[in-house]
Amino acid sequence: MAGSTLGNLFKITTWGESHGKGVGVVVDGCPAGLKLSEEDIQKFLDRRRPGQSTYTTARQESDTVEILSGIFDGQTTGTPISLMVHNKDSHSRDYREIASYYRPGHADFTFDAKYGFRDYRGGGRSSGRETIGRVAAGAIAAKILTSLGITICTYTKAIGPVSTTAFDINEITNNQLCMPDSVAAQRAYEYLDKCIATGDSAGGVVECIVKNLPAGLGEPVFEKLDANLAKAIFSIGAVKGFEIGSGFDAATATGLSHNDDFTTDAENNIIKTTNNAGGILGGISDGSDLILRAAFKPTPSISAPQATVNNCHENITVNIKGRHDPIIVPRAVVVVEAMTALTLVDAFLMNMGSRMDYLLHFDK
Amino acid sequence: MAGSTLGNLFKITTWGESHGKGVGVVVDGCPAGLKLSEEDIQKFLDRRRPGQSTYTTARQESDTVEILSGIFDGQTTGTPISLMVHNKDSHSRDYREIASYYRPGHADFTFDAKYGFRDYRGGGRSSGRETIGRVAAGAIAAKILTSLGITICTYTKAIGPVSTTAFDINEITNNQLCMPDSVAAQRAYEYLDKCIATGDSAGGVVECIVKNLPAGLGEPVFEKLDANLAKAIFSIGAVKGFEIGSGFDAATATGLSHNDDFTTDAENNIIKTTNNAGGILGGISDGSDLILRAAFKPTPSISAPQATVNNCHENITVNIKGRHDPIIVPRAVVVVEAMTALTLVDAFLMNMGSRMDYLLHFDK
Amino acid sequence: MAGSTLGNLFKITTWGESHGKGVGVVVDGCPAGLKLSEEDIQKFLDRRRPGQSTYTTARQESDTVEILSGIFDGQTTGTPISLMVHNKDSHSRDYREIASYYRPGHADFTFDAKYGFRDYRGGGRSSGRETIGRVAAGAIAAKILTSLGITICTYTKAIGPVSTTAFDINEITNNQLCMPDSVAAQRAYEYLDKCIATGDSAGGVVECIVKNLPAGLGEPVFEKLDANLAKAIFSIGAVKGFEIGSGFDAATATGLSHNDDFTTDAENNIIKTTNNAGGILGGISDGSDLILRAAFKPTPSISAPQATVNNCHENITVNIKGRHDPIIVPRAVVVVEAMTALTLVDAFLMNMGSRMDYLLHFDK
Amino acid sequence: MAGSTLGNLFKITTWGESHGKGVGVVVDGCPAGLKLSEEDIQKFLDRRRPGQSTYTTARQESDTVEILSGIFDGQTTGTPISLMVHNKDSHSRDYREIASYYRPGHADFTFDAKYGFRDYRGGGRSSGRETIGRVAAGAIAAKILTSLGITICTYTKAIGPVSTTAFDINEITNNQLCMPDSVAAQRAYEYLDKCIATGDSAGGVVECIVKNLPAGLGEPVFEKLDANLAKAIFSIGAVKGFEIGSGFDAATATGLSHNDDFTTDAENNIIKTTNNAGGILGGISDGSDLILRAAFKPTPSISAPQATVNNCHENITVNIKGRHDPIIVPRAVVVVEAMTALTLVDAFLMNMGSRMDYLLHFDK
């Protein structure tokens, strides 16, 4: 079944493989009248580009986005925005060997199980390159949120056993790991150096905080804001865990300590005194900061030898050649931000018809 | 926007509030020819019924399900199955007081923020009673899975700080907490007794294991099996975290230890030697056990005094009267199982048209 | 696959068979704050009730609707509204005979072909009784439209060869055939009397006019307003044709005569001088009256003998006993109106997020 | 809201405007293992290409399709197939004049009303060029149907007042009007010559017949096969009417003459002796030929002078310059075929999970 479309009202459809002609996305349902240029999108794409640090080596491509439709006179027209990035570095390797066996931790086996065969060149559709479409679309969603005064901050919370303890927002763009803590970043470098030395790889945690989100977003029961965020984030390859607010710590807390008391602020608005809820109560945004976290598994592509089977069902040992980032997490930061932005815009639009007074006010 | 419908092909729509006439669900897309009786569904509902233990006191209702449509001669007809449970214990309290303030940890505030007012009786639509529809529908999904040889085992993995360490499947139904470990259950009882004594409450973790799931379920990119499970589970009230397989532990692992090697079994089938993936690779089931976990926050309704504001924006202290289970987790076990079953049946149906040979074989 | 749910934002899910416990509908996505009572819905249901004229004899039921959820203090809460009508006149006949053969013009054969068996009692899910859910939901949609100043007028345009030529809105409720032309109604009575005399039945055309619909509703390409109306109306059993505005006459017109010129009215609004478009240009409402028509085939249940096969594949002649309305069209009038109202509310909600200025205005 | 995606399981998303960089479509949900080349798609596109007859003059483009993703080793992989046609003849005109007024019969006014402004170059998204995506996707759907032994034949049934009376399948590709009747084609030429002489245009009717469609396709109530066909066909610009089988003639028929009797054929299969139903009973295919018709309005672009208003709300007379085909119908034939094929493949896939025995048989 079709699985490459996400969203109810702000809908994106991604396409493309690692080694085809390119990757792209169609963004449909974007409100008309948003000023949008290729530069707006390129800024986001540049944040996920390979080759930007010693820890994310590899593929030498500029990943330049082209807007193919949906913009006129510098503004969105309300019709589908088609975005494409051509693949350039895609014919440089021989994939015949990789075609013959199943890489541990990859989707080679499951694609074969599902479809009977697979596009084995660079992981095909299950390549990390698929996230280009998400990030390009997310840049548009983020621009809408910015127009509405909503801001998103996303960063690396932990790499392997190294967690951040300080938070300096300026530091996020100051180190190659997108960590808001320079000391932790230093320790993470050392950890990654060890991984590289042993042909191994590391995982980590990405955290995302959304400020100024209005209360009321999210639809009760199945289209809850946290449920849709969970789906959006878990649809990113390599994610194994997802949390809102207190997350798994909630399981060991007690009600008295975990419940966030309500009070009023200086302008007599109702606010919470704490934010264990992470900004969502009953699946609906509560006006506090939205806080989410995603756990990423270690990059499955490693250069150390591994045991697996080939397509003749023979046990073999493989040394996978090619690009091997010891860590995917810093490049995933912008993907998490994109998926969050996409989910929030969709939730915002879904909420616009929630009350009769909104309809009556609209119809003037 | 409509948020009470879930599923692509096996679609459920729930309705009802805590203190209305009843709660129910319409299950649409159930294949014709499944033998189904009210007893099949009642068995599941009985697992979530209040009043079954000293730790889940309260509401005295039998929650008897009635099948209103979709069955003929004891079999599903392929048309919508409408299920209803009448509310019986719903007029016993005066909710005027609760209407005047926002309970910490509840959705009172966010429903007001979204809709302008709320059905304050017993939490209205955000009541735990809403899960009756999920469980009733899940019973049907579970029966389909059973027909296909797929089995689900769900249990309490942890309550507050007490984690299970042993696993005895028979013990799950042997204690009031649905724990597969009698020693842990005993310690959890003691922990809960302390919570009750202080008017406090506890959270916990539910784990679910699915056996015999075929490889190939889940659609790449956005309809990934884990993404849809994440949404389904996170749509349950009180869930704050979700994991597949190694979950958050993956973030601290390295690629070498986390990658599951492939090998062959005695029948020459390709299997994994370990299961950190939790049965899903690239969003597609890999034939191993599917393993998921959900973290539940402590029950927000507690009898200890709490600070909050009333609807005049005045700071007050409240002592919430009424039923207060110190723990919701044991009753949530069957809800997690239901949501898992619903997601798996939908994924199974979505996969049926994935290959031309399936179509050609079907069309004979 | 699930086929009983319609709508993107204003979503209805119907359930129930002719001879089960009842029929119903869940309306999800209704904006909060709409005053709604059972009487609002009953008024619509009464318009489709059998036994109201000499030409629609039969089933003696009051079809009393019960609201099961979604209303609090006389207003919609924004959560699902569950409506049910119990079947009362459902055990009066022996359906064993009908079970043994395929009635011409009915869905007996196709339900068997699809599902392997069928609920043969009174047509099961393919019974006209299924429209109760549509009409009940449509009553809610119509009340929303009324709040917005949008009005719908639906009537019988033709019965068999008898077409209306005059239009008197008061006459519609003045005759048993819902015709806005008393002379035509008289001729139609005579035509129907002849049909009854020969055990035969008649078809007809229903027309629906919507006034005061704002321009801008409908989404380009696939969610065009006319496309969604076409689907909604064609989902009514017995419909064989659908038109907007000039309809099939457009095929024989020329561009010069068919194009509606634009001009301005007294308030300097842009209007069309004619309305061949029927209120829709490019799939989007243009502010003129929306005009649609549906052709209904003659009632397939007739008392005259017919040739068919039984389930042993033997050729037989049948005389179908029981209720046989010679005409279904007058009862279908309110069904067409309901489906139109449902489609328009959905289109109205879909349009609310179409422009950035709407979002910015909403977010204050 | 997003309106450029169609289909439940076999899902297409089109994008692009008349004078942007190109037009395209993403086809998602195509089963893996279908042999597919650009030639397969080009054959369909060539059938809608402008400049192929004296009656469809104009735009000189080859409309060459490029497959950007989803194919590996000449077969579909099960992942999204992205198709693009570059616009080449798109900068040849000055559209400033057309930007200043509303063309009668076009969507200029409604796009402005909806979005606040419009891409006025060549009609933007409401251009007939948008159908390229539909036809390209339809070519894939048609190839799937062919694999299943299902064939579609589509042709011009009438042009203006000239209806075909004979049917010679070979004649369809033998005249420029796609009519299966050479005598009618001759008379239609003469009619069109008159239209051209007066700067006027003509409409017409397209008919489509599908053979060998299995019984059982279509989901009861809202996803009926005829309802989805109605939506698909009515989403084509310029369609004003739609019929299945007897269509509007059903309204004047009687039950006795309209009901199709059942009998058995030589192989003891149940068949209908007539086909007024047009192959669909109760929204489900009955195994007979599927027959549908669409009425197209006359091309709104004509060279004769017309009255309209400009964007200063002044009444003006316009002589629209540029390409003016006197008839759009022959080019719409392949669009109707494409939309039919897309709907049928989706219905086929939706039906695959309709019975438990199908599931049990699949899971081997």
Write a brief structural summary:
Chain A is α+β, with helices and mostly antiparallel strands.
Describe this structure in words.
- The structure is a homotetramer of 364-residue chains.
- The first copy, chain A, is of the alpha+beta class.
- Chain A has a single domain (5-361), classed as Chorismate synthase AroC (Chorismate synthase, AroC fold).
- Chain A is 26% helix and 21% strand.
- Chain A has helices spanning 38-47, 108-115, 131-147, 182-197, 225-234, 255-258, 329-351, 356-362, and strands at residues 5-6, 11-16, 22-28, 65-67, 71-72, 75-76, 81-86, 151-159, 162-163, 204-211, 239-244, 262-264, 270-272, 280-281, 284-285, 290-296, 306-309, 315-318.
- A 5-stranded antiparallel β-sheet of chain A has the order 1-2-3-7-4, with helices on one face.
- In chain A, α3 packs across α7 (329-351).
- The radius of gyration of chain A is 22 Å and the shape is globular.
- Chains in contact: A-B, A-C, A-D, B-C, B-D, C-D.
- The interface between A and B is large, with 116 and 116 residues.
- β11 (239-244) of chain A pairs antiparallel with β11 of chain B, so a sheet runs across the interface.
